């Protein structure tokens, strides 16, 4: 079928919105009509050349939509289901899946820019193959994804909110609830108040953290942070973050979350935690970003440096749960949506992200 999609042909060039060809779903694959797609910084890493997967590629991984058609052998979804796209589709039987760590499963030995059989379903009209970002490729009117990459959710959830639950909400809230398992009464630091950081903040509030310190360089981001539950805000441009956090807390926070993906802010998180504290890195860094910490500080402080990938999600369990929390009024998603754009204005949407003007923008592909 012929669809419209945003194609990246070369890093540091605009996305090209154009007609492309999408093949039918194969065995254990699902065709999804995209309803909404979040404008996430992970895709921007590819656009800027900081991540270097093969190009050309249809980007987009934070999305929701409606199942249009299913391939042979599909049992868990059916046409008409409202779904959140899971950018870590998994096999279901490997050691990681068996241990309840599905986001650590690659799902297949094939490249993550292709579907599980190692081939693509996307092509230019002239016949050139296009890669699928994270096996999703949601900056398009339709996407073909693995069955485990389309998680059914209740049909009354708005598509724009569902899209954000699929990445920024799950990543941020999950880092707090699943990865760090923050206890009630804890002190928490969050560095970076974009979509993921704001969800770390509200995750900490949901967990019952007593003090939540938010750090950013943008005044509008710090204002967002207070709306999502921050008790204190610090402008990172006004002094050393770690020393101010230690002074505020009398020794450092119990948990610190880095939601940017920069070596210096990861070190800030590490230095801002108390003895025995837990710094958690959820920000996506450039491929060549390297951080350095004093090796002796690890045994001397007994700090636990953790990574958090997709909020340590069990997508088929956690995404529907996040939807229920949102629909029940306990999870804030609507305030994350600063602007909406049609697919044709995707480059303008990324310009707003680059300038730090938004918490999150959403592309709307259907009414």
Spell out the blueprint of helices and strands:
Blueprint: E1 2-8, E2 16-22, E3 29-38, H1 41-47, E4 57-58, E5 63-70, E6 82-85, H2 95-98, E7 122-124, E8 129-132, E9 142-146, E10 150-152, H3 159-180, E11 187-191, H4 195-207, E12 211-216, H5 219-227, E13 232-235, H6 241-249, E14 253-258, H7 263-272, E15 273-281, H8 297-301, E16 306-307, H9 315-327, E17 337-341, H10 346-354, E18 360-364
Parallel strand pairs: 4-8, 11-12, 11-14, 12-13, 14-15, 15-16, 17-18
Antiparallel strand pairs: 1-2, 1-4, 2-7, 3-5, 3-9, 3-18, 5-6, 6-10, 7-8
Helix pairs in contact: 3-4, 3-9, 6-7
Plain-language structure description:
This protein has 367 residues and is of the alpha/beta class. Helices cover 28% and strands 26% of the residues. It has ten helices and 18 strands. Strands 3, 5, 6, 9, 10, 17 and 18 form a seven-stranded mixed β-sheet that branches. Strands 13-12-11-14-15-16 form a six-stranded parallel β-sheet, with helices on both faces. It has a five-stranded mixed β-barrel with strand order 1-2-7-8-4. A hairpin with a 7-residue loop joins β1 and β2. α3 crosses α9. The longest helix has 22 residues. The chain starts with a strand and ends with a strand.
Strand content: 25-35%
Kindly state the percentage of residues in helix: 25-40%
Mean pLDDT: 96
Report the count of strand segments.
18
Distance between the termini: 21 Å
Largest sheet: 7 strands, mixed
Instruction: Using the alpha-carbon principal axes, give the shape.
Output: globular
Weakly predicted, low-confidence segments: none
């Amino acid at each position: 079928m012929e669809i419209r999609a945003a194609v990246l042909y070369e890093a540091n060039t605009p996305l090209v919105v154009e007609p492309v060809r999408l093949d039918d779903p194969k065995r254990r694959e699902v065709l999804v009509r995209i309803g909404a797609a979040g404008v996430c910084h992970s895709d921007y890493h590819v656009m800027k050349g900081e991540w270097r997967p093969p190009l050309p590629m249809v980007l987009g991984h934070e999305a929701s939509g409606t199942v249009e058609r299913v391939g042979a052998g599909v049992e868990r979804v059916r046409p008409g289901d409202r779904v959140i796209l899971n950018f870590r589709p998994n096999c279901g039987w490997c050691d990681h899946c068996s241990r309840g760590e599905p986001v650590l499963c690659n799902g297949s030995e094939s490249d993550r820019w292709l579907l599980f059989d190692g081939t693509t379903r996307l092509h230019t009209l002239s016949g050139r193959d296009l890669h699928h970002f994270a096996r999703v490729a949601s900056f398009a009117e339709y996407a073909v994804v693995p069955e485990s990459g389309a998680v059914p959710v209740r049909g009354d959830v708005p598509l724009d909110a569902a899209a954000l639950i699929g990445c920024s909400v799950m990543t941020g809230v999950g880092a707090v609830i699943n990865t760090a398992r923050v206890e009630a009464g804890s002190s928490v630091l969050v560095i970076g108040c974009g979509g993921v950081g704001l969800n770390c903040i509200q995750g900490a509030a949901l967990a019952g953290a007593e003090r939540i310190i938010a750090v950013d360089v943008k005044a509008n981001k710090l204002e967002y942070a207070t709306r999502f539950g921050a008790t204190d805000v610090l402008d990172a441009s006004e002094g050393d973050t770690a020393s101010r956090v230690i002074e505020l807390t009398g020794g450092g926070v119990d948990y610190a979350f880095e939601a940017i993906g920069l070596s210096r802010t990861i070190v800030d998180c590490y230095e801002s935690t108390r003895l025995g504290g837990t710094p958690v890195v959820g920000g996506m860094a450039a491929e060549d970003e390297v951080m350095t910490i004093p090796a002796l500080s690890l045994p001397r402080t007994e700090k636990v440096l953790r990574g958090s990938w997709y909020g340590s999600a069990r997508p088929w369990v956690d995404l529907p749960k996040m939807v229920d929390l949102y629909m029940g009024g306990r999870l804030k998603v609507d305030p994350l949506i600063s602007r909406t754009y049609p697919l044709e204005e995707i480059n303008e949407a990324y310009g707003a992200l680059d300038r730090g003007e938004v918490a999150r923008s959403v592309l709307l592909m259907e009414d």
